[in-house]
C-alpha cells in the first residue's frame, strides 16, 4: 500500500475511567482557549503560504512546522475529548511531537509543491472530500415539532454518534468497544488528511478509503509517526506568542478596515444637503396617528447625538392627504392622543409592526399645538436632539383617519469624516504591527542556516 505523507495514529489506552469522559468538556477548556488563538494564526499563515507557493514552489518551512503543530495539538485534544475518548492522559501544551503521548500526527515536508495546483486544491479539488467529512463531523436530527417550527438536535456527525455509543458502553461495562474505536480513528484520520491537503501541505490527493485502526496501514512494525529523533523544533514560546499576537492584530486590522470602508462609503454618499439617508419603509394605519415608542435621551446621550450624529431629518412622503410630522415630549403626546385611536410602531421596515390603541378622533388638528418641539406640515422635519423623553407623531394634517406614508430617516453625522480617517489609520497601524510580529515569530522559528566550510588553501 502506498505511503501517504499525512500520518495520523492513536493508541487506545486501557483501562479507561468509566466516568471521566463526563467532565472532559470542562477539563479541556484551557486547550479550547489556546486553540481559539492558534487557529486564526493557522488560517492567516496558510494564506501567506498560498501567496508564497506559486512564486517559490515551496511551503515556507517555519510556517509548515507551525501549521503541522496546530493540527497535532488539535488532534491530541480531539483524541482526549469527544472526538475519540481514546485516552485519559491530559494533552500536553505544545506544538512539538511527544512520542510518549498516545495520539500522534505528522506530515512529511514537501521539498517541492506544484505552483499551479495550489490555486485549486482547497476550493475545488477537495470538494468531494468536504462532503464526506461533513458527514463525519456534523449533522442534525429533527426530533420534534412546535408551533414556531421544528426542533433540531445537533448530533455532531457520525464520529460523535459512535463516540457517544462507546462512552455509554464504557460507563456501564468499563470497556471501550474495539470495533467502534477503529472506525472512529479511521474517520478522524480521513478528516485530518483532508485538512492537511486543504491547508496546502501536500500535493498528494487524499485516498478515498477508511483506514481504520490505531496505526497507519503502511506503518507495519515501524516506530510511531512522531519519532523521538525528529529534528529539533524551533517554535519556542516566544515565537508562538509573537505569531499569535500578530494574528490577533491582523484580524482586528481587517475588522477595523471593513468598518472604515463602510464609513467612507457612507461619507461619500451624502445627499445634496450633506445628510446620510436611509429608507425606513412604508407605514400605514386606519387610525388617526402613528407614533414611535418613548425615546429617552439623557444629557450625555443628547450631547453625543448632537456632536456626532448632528441634526436629524425625517421625511414622510404621501401620495394622498398631506401629512403632519411632529416631535414632542412623550407626556404631551400622551395627553394629546390619550383618547385618540392610534398605532404605536414596534418595528420599521417592509413588514412594519404596530401596537394599536383604541379611541376616538382628536379634539383638534395637530398643526399649531404649542407642545411640539419640532413640526412640519410638509414632507420634511428637521430636529436637533435635546435631553428628555420624546415621541415622533405622524398624522394627516387635517386630523382625518387613514395615514399612509413612506418614511426616510437622515442624519448629518458631522464626525463621520474624522471617524473614517481614524478607522483607516488605526487599521493600518494594527496591520503593520501585526505583520511585524508575525515576521518576528517566523524569523525566530526559522531553521538555522547551515554554513558550508570552505577548504583551506595553501600557498605554493
From TrEMBL:
Keywords: Membrane, Transmembrane, Transmembrane helix. InterPro entries: DUF4389. It comes from Acrocarpospora macrocephala. The keyword Lyase does not apply. The chain crosses the membrane at residues 29-53, 122-144, 150-172, 239-264, 423-445. This is DUF4389 domain-containing protein.
Amino acid at each position: 500500500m502506498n505511503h501517504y505523507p499525512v500520518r495520523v495514529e492513536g493508541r487506545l489506552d486501557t483501562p479507561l475511567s468509566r466516568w471521566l469522559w463526563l467532565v472532559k468538556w470542562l477539563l479541556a477548556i484551557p486547550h479550547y482557549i489556546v486553540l481559539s488563538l492558534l487557529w486564526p494564526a493557522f488560517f492567516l499563515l496558510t494564506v501567506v503560504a498560498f501567496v508564497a507557493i506559486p512564486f517559490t514552489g515551496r511551503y515556507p518551512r517555519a510556517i509548515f512546522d507551525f501549521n503541522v503543530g496546530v493540527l497535532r495539538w488539535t488532534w491530541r485534544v480531539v483524541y482526549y475529548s469527544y472526538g475519540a475518548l481514546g485516552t485519559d492522559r491530559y494533552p500536553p501544551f505544545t506544538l512539538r511531537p511527544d512520542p510518549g503521548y498516545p495520539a500522534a500526527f505528522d506530515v512529511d515536508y514537501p521539498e517541492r509543491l506544484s505552483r499551479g495546483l495550489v490555486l485549486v486544491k482547497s476550493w475545488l479539488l477537495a470538494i468531494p472530500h468536504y462532503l464526506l467529512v461533513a458527514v463525519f463531523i456534523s449533522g442534525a436530527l429533527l426530533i420534534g415539532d412546535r408551533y414556531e417550527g421544528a426542533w433540531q438536535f445537533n448530533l455532531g456527525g457520525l464520529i460523535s454518534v459512535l463516540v457517544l455509543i462507546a462512552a455509554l458502553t464504557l460507563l456501564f461495562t468499563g470497556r471501550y468497544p474495539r470495533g467502534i474505536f477503529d472506525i472512529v480513528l479511521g474517520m478522524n484520520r480521513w478528516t485530518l488528511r483532508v485538512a492537511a491537503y486543504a491547508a496546502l501541505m501536500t500535493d498528494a490527493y487524499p485516498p478515498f478509503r477508511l483506514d481504520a485502526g490505531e496505526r497507519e496501514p503502511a506503518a507495519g512494525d515501524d516506530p510511531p509517526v512522531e519519532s523521538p529523533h525528529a529534528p529539533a523544533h524551533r517554535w519556542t514560546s516566544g515565537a508562538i506568542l509573537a505569531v499569535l499576537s500578530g494574528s490577533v492584530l491582523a484580524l482586528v486590522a481587517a475588522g477595523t478596515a471593513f468598518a472604515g470602508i463602510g464609513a467612507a462609503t457612507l461619507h461619500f454618499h451624502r445627499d445634496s444637503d450633506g445628510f446620510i439617508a436611509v429608507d425606513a419603509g412604508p407605514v400605514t394605519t386606519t387610525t388617526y396617528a402613528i407614533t414611535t415608542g418613548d425615546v429617552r435621551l439623557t444629557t450625555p446621550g443628547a450631547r453625543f447625538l448632537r456632536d456626532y450624529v448632528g441634526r436629524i431629518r425625517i421625511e414622510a412622503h404621501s401620495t394622498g392627504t398631506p401629512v403632519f410630522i411632529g416631535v414632542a415630549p412623550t407626556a404631551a403626546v400622551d395627553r394629546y392622543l390619550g383618547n385618540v385611536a392610534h398605532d404605536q410602531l414596534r418595528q420599521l421596515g417592509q413588514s412594519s409592526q404596530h401596537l394599536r390603541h383604541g379611541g376616538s378622533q382628536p379634539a383638534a388638528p395637530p398643526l399649531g399645538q404649542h407642545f411640539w418641539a419640532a413640526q412640519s406640515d410638509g414632507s420634511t422635519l428637521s430636529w436637533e436632539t435635546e435631553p428628555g423623553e420624546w415621541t415622533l407623531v405622524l398624522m394627516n394634517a387635517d386630523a382625518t383617519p387613514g395615514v399612509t406614508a413612506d418614511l426616510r430617516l437622515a442624519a448629518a453625522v458631522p464626525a463621520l469624516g474624522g471617524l473614517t480617517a481614524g478607522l483607516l489609520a488605526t487599521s493600518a497601524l494594527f496591520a503593520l504591527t501585526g505583520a511585524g510580529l508575525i515576521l518576528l515569530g517566523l524569523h525566530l522559528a526559522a531553521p538555522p542556516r547551515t554554513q558550508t566550510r570552505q577548504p583551506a588553501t595553501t600557498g605554493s
